[in-house]
Design a protein that fits this description.
Blueprint lengths: L16 H4 L38 E3 L6 E3 L1 E4 L6 H10 L4 E3 L7 H10 L2 H5 L1 E6 L7 H12 L4 E6 L7 H4 L6 H13 L2 E8 L4 H11 L4 E5 L9 H12 L2 E5 L8 H7 L1 H5 L4 H10 L6 E5 L3 H12 L6 H13 L11 H6 L5 H14 L2 H10 L2 H4 L6 H7 L6 H11 L2
Parallel strand pairs: 3-4, 3-10, 4-5, 5-6, 6-7, 7-8, 8-9, 9-10
Antiparallel strand pairs: 1-2
Helix pairs in contact: 2-13, 8-9, 10-14, 12-13, 16-17, 16-20
Length: 416
């Protein structure tokens, strides 16, 4: 694990997660704007990138599994350049690859492993599926293994817990059915560990239920890394960490589209040889509770930039975190990873404002246009209809002060 000790911010030394929390009541997320599925727009390659990496990128323990994983992991998506991206990431020491049934990347990963069988034994491989019930995960896992052309994965997630039917799925992490399913999967050897990913507004409750259940190995979360100390999400993270549940961060880079504005406001990043995205990754890694950060990398420049960030990570100070947060907010993000539904409640609407802006981020920021439209079409009509909503009240309630009036108009034009 990285050295995230607590120091006095006045001497400029590293600060741990808990030393930073609460320095601003109602703290809004800058690191939370950082992502599964977040692609980093290509930046000028850092000078250190010109040199090939030697050895492995740093690792951290994944909860109480006893397994160390790369602190950066490769989020994948179906693309013509995926084969090259996999090879480059591996050559530079990354040993954790993330995929899912809906990403379309499993066949390419399977071909890559089959071309060089030595890869599999050193690779931490994660995939995800959307079962109708926890028990259905067993059959879904077999399908994933077939696509990946392998006998096992290291970790299988139920994908996007709560997004199907929150009233049923919220209790899955402490249900007998999911527990028995997880035990059966681990016993079969087809997956070493079992967990779920989640970005539902009631994420904090879902995480707390996983602690109560006591059988979930790892969780991938939409990360509101700078939530207030007493925020439900932060308390849920503390509970998971204390219980030994491995935590993987996602949705970290999402929504920071005005990256030049952030750079202009923080010249200190350039002085350190860091791009704004690398600074955002360093902010996430400063939180010692997270074992790894998942970032979708769409080209080789992004691979180099993100791996360079991992190799040069140093915990950030309180002052540095505060300035980064302020710069990100001032640049006008289009996604709020800290969404807990406050925006919709304040606006007096059943429309899922946080989900709508997340899908816009998929479309505009990551280039997942077809997937964004597919997920938009799958939403219930009332979840899409923001007619009559008080969007100024929504903005005030939003943890990242999103400009919903502008963003939702674009949602209707691009996703409908």
């Amino acid at each position: 694990m990285s050295d995230c000790r607590e120091f006095d911010e006045n001497n400029g030394s590293a600060v741990g997660r808990r030393a930073f929390l609460g320095t601003g009541a109602g703290a809004v997320t800058a690191a939370a704007m950082l992502g599964q599925g977040e692609s980093t727009p290509a930046q000028e390659p850092p000078a250190a990138d010109a040199k090939p990496s030697s050895g492995l990128i740093p690792k951290r323990m994944l909860g109480k599994t006893g397994v160390e994983v790369s602190m950066l992991n490769l989020g994948t998506w179906k693309s013509v350049g995926l084969d090259r991206i996999l090879r480059l990431a591996w050559s530079r020491g990354l040993r954790y690859v993330d995929t899912a049934a809906s990403y379309g990347s499993e066949p390419a990963i399977g071909r890559w492993m089959k071309a060089d069988p030595k890869i599999r034994k050193d690779l931490f491989l994660v995939t995800k599926a959307h079962p109708h019930t926890p028990r259905d995960l067993i059959a879904e896992l077999d399908k994933r293994l077939e696509q990946l052309q392998t006998d096992y994965v290291d970790l299988i997630f139920i994908h996007a817990m709560g997004d199907g039917d929150i009233n049923k799925e919220i209790d899955w992490p402490m249900s007998r059915e999911f527990k028995e399913t997880a035990e059966a999967i681990r016993k079969s050897g087809k997956a070493k560990f079992v967990g779920f990913s989640c970005h539902h507004p009631r994420q904090a409750e879902i995480l707390q239920n996983a602690v109560k259940g006591g059988f979930v190995d790892a969780i991938m979360v939409r990360n509101d890394s700078w939530a207030d100390h007493d925020a439900p999400f932060n308390k849920a993270l503390d509970a998971c960490h204390k219980a030994g549940v491995g935590l993987i961060s996602m949705k970290q880079i999402a929504g920071n589209v005005k990256i030049d504005d952030i750079a202009a406001r923080l010249p200190e990043l350039k002085e350190k040889g860091l791009t704004p995205y690398q600074g955002l990754l360093h902010a996430i890694w400063t939180d010692e509770r997270f074992s790894s950060v998942c970032v979708s990398m769409r080209n080789t420049d992004q691979v180099r930039e993100n791996i360079d960030a991992a190799n040069r990570f140093k915990p950030m100070t309180t002052a540095e975190l505060g300035r980064l947060r302020a710069a990100c907010l001032a640049a006008g993000p289009i996604f709020c990873a800290g969404c807990d539904g406050s925006c919709s409640r304040a606006a007096g609407t059943a429309a899922e404002l946080g989900t709508l802006t997340r899908l816009l981020t998929y479309h505009d920021h990551h280039g997942y246009r077809e997937e964004a439209r597919r997920q938009y079409a799958a939403l219930a009509p009332e979840a899409r209809d923001w007619t009559g909503a008080d969007l100024e009240a929504a903005r005030e309630a939003c943890h990242n002060k999103l400009d919903f009036a502008a963003l939702l108009d674009r949602v209707d034009k691009t996703l409908a």
